[in-house]
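Long-time lurker. I teach an intro course on protein structure, and each term I like to show students one example going from raw sequence to a predicted 3D structure in token notation. This year I'd like something fresh instead of my usual example. Would anyone be willing to generate the tokens for the chain below so I can use it in lecture? Attribution to the forum is fine with me.
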Amino acid sequence: MKSDNDSVIEFEWIEVNIDDDCKAVQPDADAQPEVVEAQQPESKAVSAVRNIFGYLIAVATAVLIYIVVSRFVVINANIPTRSMAPLIESEDRLMGFRMAYLFAEPKRGDVIIFRHKCYDDEDEQLLIKRIIGLPGDTIQITDNMVYINDIPYEETYLPDGVYMNSFGPYKVPENAYFVMGDNRTISNDARRWTYKDVTSDEIVARAWFKYYPHWEVF
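-- Reply from a regular --
Happy to contribute to a lecture. Here you go:
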């Protein structure tokens, strides 16, 4: 039984006139009887090959779609730390939207997934943080409050009891972003990194929604 919100596909019916009065046809005395050739049934081997070929095409198509979607549309991420708590806890799983900034610029407050080299002795890592500073902003932390261009920046999403050491002032370069984790007490982020600036080219995706252990859209 369909629910009320099931979508209904409407077909455009083509009306045709059907003559329900059969007309007798006089046989042609000179007509030759029509010979119908019986079609040979398809062998089991040919049928099996056809089925296998169809199955392989279906599998290859599914794999191709998965590769395209995972490489260009979404990223599936498992979060190993609590640096973004309480929004994202350790072992949460979420999807990021790779095309979020194809036609738009990153905004302050966006939670992003990005690749970045933080220190000289480390390789590039895949990280998740929140954008705080936009290109050209001056960031400063004083008395446990973030200031952007000398204006206090209220962050209602921060956990209770969070503590931030004094920082800055620091001016964000052009084409770069200043990021921090929500759990400021333990988050290792741009405040501490040698290479503080996350460039546009390093952004992989915007966090889209969490699907484990519960559903939540960011």
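Some talking points for your students: The longest strand covers residues 203-212. Residues 1-25 have pLDDT under 50 and may be disordered.
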